[in-house]
Amino acid sequence: MKPREVAFLLILLFLVAIGFIGAYQMHFQPVMPVEPFESALGYPWRLLVALYVFLVLIGTAAIASAGELLMVRELEHVLKEAILIAIVTIAVGLITIAVDLERVERGSYALLGHTNAASVMYWMIMFYVLELLFLILEGWFVFRSDLLKQSERKSFKGFVAKIISLKFLGSFFAKPNKHLDMSFARAIGVLALLTAILAYSNLGALFSATHIALWNDASNPVYFVVTAVISGSAMLILAIIVTSWIKGEESRKLEALPILRKVLLFSLLSASLFALWKSVIIGYPAISAEGSNLIQNLLFRKFALNFWFLEIFVGIIAPVLILLFATKNMDALFVASFLALVGIFAFRIDFIFSAQVVKKISGVSIPTSVHPFEVMFAIGVLALALLLYYVLYKLLPMEVEHEA
């Protein structure tokens, strides 16, 4: 392992340790108790909820599964990256919401004893768990033939491949059949795609079901699917380009960039229409005075800088202009994707916090604050996602068949 790789891993481990300390402190010292009074300064949903929404709505697998279903050859080259990113982000996202909820073991009591099948939150968690299971199973079939080849090496990677491929269980698992494996992967990919769409839209429905004016919008399920496509296409572009830079070689995976560029462009344009819809429909005073007040906060007051600069300019206008006028430049595509992700992250923060900034009865405006422990945990969680992806990428056979 090169010195730079060792240094990179040590930095990530240090950041993960910081996140663990933040989670530990939050568990024993609540960051902001939410009192049952209208004048209370606490937010029920805070940074960890925004981070959870950001992570689980990185829809790389949905894009790849759709490409696989539609037989888009270019997207098949990046299927492994898409599945791996989705598994990591969903798993880390579920860890994030578990830390926010704390006593997650009590969920098993509800699941076994008194499941509320009418609960939107129950189905949100179930759909994400199902999506994660389908992705792991789909990934196993996608990787299996290459894992069997890798298992023949006398190295740690060969040992890992032998374990993951289940080759040690006998001859049935030791026989490679690429065509049959990919047939199974496509079938499971359809289930993963359907479950992903249900999970994304159900998460949007969770907010729509509340009485908070900024969230109580029937378009949220569709909007969340659109933003998941933005995040997924942008993240895949970043992963492909960064891998190409690090390896210093051309790859068949780069053939996916033109398709992903179009997906990112059209999803950004769709998101701009949704942003306009929310600003006008929810903010129109004759419809809801509370909604109008919240939109005013977002457009002209406390969250105006976040909204206009990070969400609109950085997250939509700048990427769209770059994607329209720098169609062949890979560096420009990298910048556009990075800016789109920054805009999506800002949107998640604004969406969570700005909706809770004004109390319903008293009208008291609550100061927006993020506790240092939350920031520590957020940094640690993002570092954990990067660490897991890096380790899995190094251990698994990621090259497409033509390049092996």
UniProtKB/TrEMBL annotation:
The keyword Zinc does not apply. Its main location: membrane. Keywords: Cell membrane, Membrane, Transmembrane, Transmembrane helix. InterPro entries: Electron_transfer_protein, NrfD-like. The chain crosses the membrane at residues 47-70, 82-101, 121-143, 184-203, 223-242, 263-287, 307-326, 333-355, 375-393. It is a multi-pass membrane protein. Belongs to the NrfD family. This is Molybdopterin oxidoreductase, membrane subunit.
